Amino acid sequence: METIHWYNFLAAFFAGVFLLNAIPHLVQGVSGNAFPTPFAKPPGRGLSSPLTNTLWAFANLITGFLLFKASKVSFDVNLLLLVFLAGMLTISIISATNFAKK
Protein backbone atom coordinates (compact mmCIF):
# COMPACT_ATOMS: atom_id res chain seq x y z
CA MET A 1 0.00 0.00 0.00
CA GLU A 2 1.27 3.46 -0.91
CA THR A 3 1.97 6.10 1.69
CA ILE A 4 -0.76 8.69 2.03
CA HIS A 5 0.40 12.29 2.57
CA TRP A 6 -1.46 15.44 3.64
CA TYR A 7 -1.62 16.65 0.04
CA ASN A 8 -3.53 13.50 -0.95
CA PHE A 9 -6.29 14.59 1.42
CA LEU A 10 -6.26 18.13 0.00
CA ALA A 11 -6.42 16.74 -3.56
CA ALA A 12 -9.27 14.38 -2.56
CA PHE A 13 -11.30 17.22 -1.06
CA PHE A 14 -10.91 19.48 -4.09
CA ALA A 15 -11.49 16.60 -6.50
CA GLY A 16 -14.91 16.23 -4.89
CA VAL A 17 -15.50 19.98 -5.17
CA PHE A 18 -14.58 20.23 -8.85
CA LEU A 19 -16.32 17.03 -9.96
CA LEU A 20 -19.60 17.91 -8.26
CA ASN A 21 -19.42 21.54 -9.43
CA ALA A 22 -19.30 20.30 -13.02
CA ILE A 23 -22.78 18.79 -12.78
CA PRO A 24 -25.02 21.91 -12.64
CA HIS A 25 -22.93 23.73 -15.25
CA LEU A 26 -23.03 20.78 -17.65
CA VAL A 27 -26.76 20.20 -17.16
CA GLN A 28 -27.60 23.87 -17.69
CA GLY A 29 -25.18 24.20 -20.59
CA VAL A 30 -26.43 21.22 -22.58
CA SER A 31 -30.01 22.23 -21.78
CA GLY A 32 -29.39 25.58 -23.44
CA ASN A 33 -29.91 27.59 -20.27
CA ALA A 34 -27.93 30.57 -19.04
CA PHE A 35 -26.44 29.97 -15.57
CA PRO A 36 -23.96 31.78 -13.30
CA THR A 37 -20.23 31.16 -13.72
CA PRO A 38 -17.12 32.97 -12.50
CA PHE A 39 -16.94 34.64 -15.94
CA ALA A 40 -20.32 36.39 -15.68
CA LYS A 41 -20.75 40.01 -14.67
CA PRO A 42 -20.83 40.17 -11.70
CA PRO A 43 -18.84 36.94 -11.24
CA GLY A 44 -20.90 34.08 -9.86
CA ARG A 45 -24.11 36.13 -9.91
CA GLY A 46 -24.66 37.20 -13.50
CA LEU A 47 -25.62 34.68 -16.15
CA SER A 48 -23.23 33.08 -18.62
CA SER A 49 -24.17 31.51 -21.93
CA PRO A 50 -24.87 27.79 -22.29
CA LEU A 51 -21.58 27.41 -24.21
CA THR A 52 -19.62 29.07 -21.40
CA ASN A 53 -21.30 26.76 -18.89
CA THR A 54 -20.52 23.67 -20.94
CA LEU A 55 -16.86 24.69 -21.29
CA TRP A 56 -16.68 25.55 -17.57
CA ALA A 57 -18.17 22.14 -16.75
CA PHE A 58 -15.49 20.38 -18.77
CA ALA A 59 -12.74 22.47 -17.15
CA ASN A 60 -14.14 21.33 -13.78
CA LEU A 61 -14.28 17.70 -14.93
CA ILE A 62 -10.68 17.70 -16.15
CA THR A 63 -9.40 19.43 -13.00
CA GLY A 64 -11.44 17.11 -10.77
CA PHE A 65 -10.20 14.04 -12.62
CA LEU A 66 -6.55 15.09 -12.31
CA LEU A 67 -6.99 15.84 -8.61
CA PHE A 68 -8.81 12.52 -8.11
CA LYS A 69 -5.89 10.65 -9.67
CA ALA A 70 -3.37 12.62 -7.59
CA SER A 71 -5.31 12.02 -4.39
CA LYS A 72 -5.14 8.22 -4.67
CA VAL A 73 -8.77 7.89 -3.51
CA SER A 74 -9.84 4.25 -3.39
CA PHE A 75 -12.22 2.02 -1.52
CA ASP A 76 -9.18 0.69 0.34
CA VAL A 77 -8.51 4.03 2.05
CA ASN A 78 -11.77 4.95 3.75
CA LEU A 79 -10.55 8.27 5.14
CA LEU A 80 -9.56 9.56 1.69
CA LEU A 81 -12.93 8.50 0.34
CA LEU A 82 -14.68 10.36 3.18
CA VAL A 83 -12.62 13.50 2.49
CA PHE A 84 -13.56 13.24 -1.21
CA LEU A 85 -17.25 12.98 -0.25
CA ALA A 86 -16.83 15.89 2.19
CA GLY A 87 -15.64 18.04 -0.72
CA MET A 88 -18.76 17.09 -2.65
CA LEU A 89 -21.00 17.86 0.31
CA THR A 90 -19.28 21.20 0.93
CA ILE A 91 -19.75 22.50 -2.63
CA SER A 92 -23.33 21.16 -2.61
CA ILE A 93 -24.19 23.21 0.46
CA ILE A 94 -22.40 26.31 -0.84
CA SER A 95 -24.13 26.03 -4.23
CA ALA A 96 -27.57 25.39 -2.75
CA THR A 97 -27.20 28.41 -0.49
CA ASN A 98 -25.80 30.65 -3.22
CA PHE A 99 -28.27 29.69 -5.95
CA ALA A 100 -31.26 29.92 -3.62
CA LYS A 101 -30.59 33.68 -3.58
CA LYS A 102 -30.73 33.83 -7.39
Topology:
Blueprint: H1 6-30, H2 50-71, H3 78-100
Describe the overall structure.
This protein is mostly helical and 102 residues long. The chain has one domain. The protein has helices at residues 6-30, 50-71, 78-100. The termini are far apart.
CA gyration radius, whole angstroms = 15 Å
Number of helices: 3
From the N-terminal CA to the C-terminal CA, the straight-line distance is: 46 Å
Low-confidence stretches: none
Shape field: elongated
Helicity, as a percent range: 55-70%
Strand content: under 5%
Q: By helix and strand content, what is the structural category?
A: mainly alpha
Main sheet summary: none
Output mean pLDDT.
94
Overall number of domains: 1
The SSE order reads HHH
- Tell me the number of strands: 0
